[in-house]
Amino acid sequence: MLYLVGLGLFDEKDISLRGLGILKKSDRVYAEFYTNFSHASLKKLESLAGKKIVVLTRKDIEERPEENVLKDAGRKVISLLVSGDPMVATTHIDLVLRARKKGIKVKIIHASSVYSAVAETGLQIYKFGRTTSIVYPEKNYFPESPYDAIKENKKAGLHTLCLLDVKADEQRYMTVNEGIDVLLQIEAKRKQKVFTQETFCIGVARLGGDSVIMAGKAKELLKTAFGKPPQILIIPGKMHFMEEEALKTLSD
Ligand SMILES: C[S@@+](CC[C@H](N)C(=O)[O-])C[C@H]1O[C@@H](n2cnc3c(N)ncnc32)[C@H](O)[C@@H]1O
């Protein structure tokens, strides 16, 4: 049996009682921290679970799960801890499919996620359009897809949630400032006035913990310090007056 156990939004206190119960009865517990930055302490989690937790890398899970999470899951109880909700990360559905193909039963233990916590900004959850991810540009890799997502969502009056890059192996977690900078670089190339220095946006950090929510023009948020990860950037579409009022009240 393979359990994917959500760790929840912020730290080790966000795991559910159900999730904790599964960890306690597991023969082996693994964790991954490459899909998100978690403030959970491994030591505290190990003490709660009453056993050692083995941390896996992206390569371990995506390239050789048969050597770790899937290895004994046919006859033993194996758990994989994932920050936030385990299914709010495109990569883990692959693991579920691989397990099923091997005849291994899989159960998901859901947890709090950035996908619902984003409503803390006051924006209505059902008025978000396509989510996009802003990644650190590399020499031969500079995807402009976030720009297109914002453009399409804006056209439909919808808000855009921009998840920010996680490079766990390099200990690099994109900040709101860096996300804005990447979008402005794309704007400089595309020149369609989709995301300019004047664009109103919302920078958010550490939802579920010591959360920070700040709204303003891109050029203002560019200079605002948001502190530790994880962080997101939101570009609102057409805002209802209730959303505007909620945002004013709820932001810092
Ligand atoms: C690939 S997503 C994984 C989401 C996670 N599985 C969940 O359900 O919340 C990782 C990105 O979500 C955003 N994120 C996750 N948790 C967050 C939090 N508590 N506060 C702000 N942003 C968060 C960050 O942009 C981070 O880089």
Can you put this structure into words, describing what you see?
This protein is α/β, with parallel strands linked by helices and 252 residues long. It folds into two domains: 2-112, Tetrapyrrole methylase, N-terminal domain (Cobalt-precorrin-4 Transmethylase, domain 1), CATH 3.40.1010; 115-250, Tetrapyrrole methylase, C-terminal domain (Methyltransferase, Cobalt-precorrin-4 Transmethylase, Domain 2, 2-Layer Sandwich), CATH 3.30.950. It has helices spanning 17-25, 42-49, 58-63, 92-101, 114-117, 145-155, 176-190, 218-221, 241-250, and strands spanning 2-6, 28-32, 53-56, 78-82, 106-109, 132-134, 160-164, 166-167, 172-173, 200-205, 212-217, 231-235. The strands form three sheets. It has a five-stranded parallel β-sheet with strand order 3-2-4-1-5. A five-stranded mixed β-sheet has the order 6-7-12-10-11. A hairpin with a 4-residue loop joins strand 8 and strand 9 (172-173). The longest helix has 15 residues, at 176-190. The model has no long low-confidence stretch (mean pLDDT 96). Bound molecules: S-adenosylmethionine (SAM).
Given the structure, what is the number of helices?
A: 9
Low-confidence stretches: none
Shape: globular
Which architecture of the largest domain per CATH?
Answer: 2-Layer Sandwich
Oligomer: single chain
What is the mean predicted local confidence, pLDDT? 96
Estimate nothing, just give the exact number of structural domains. 2
**Helix fraction?**
25-40%
Spell the H/E element sequence. Answer: EHEHEHEHEHEHEEEHEEHEH
Predict the CATH topology of the largest domain: Methyltransferase, Cobalt-precorrin-4 Transmethylase, Domain 2
Integer-rounded radius of gyration = 19 Å
Distance between the termini: 44 Å
Q: CATH superfamily name of the largest domain?
A: Tetrapyrrole methylase, C-terminal domain
Major sheet size, sense and barrel closure: 5 strands, parallel
Q: Please list the strands of the largest sheet in the order they lie side by side.
A: 3-2-4-1-5
Strand percentage lies at 15-25%
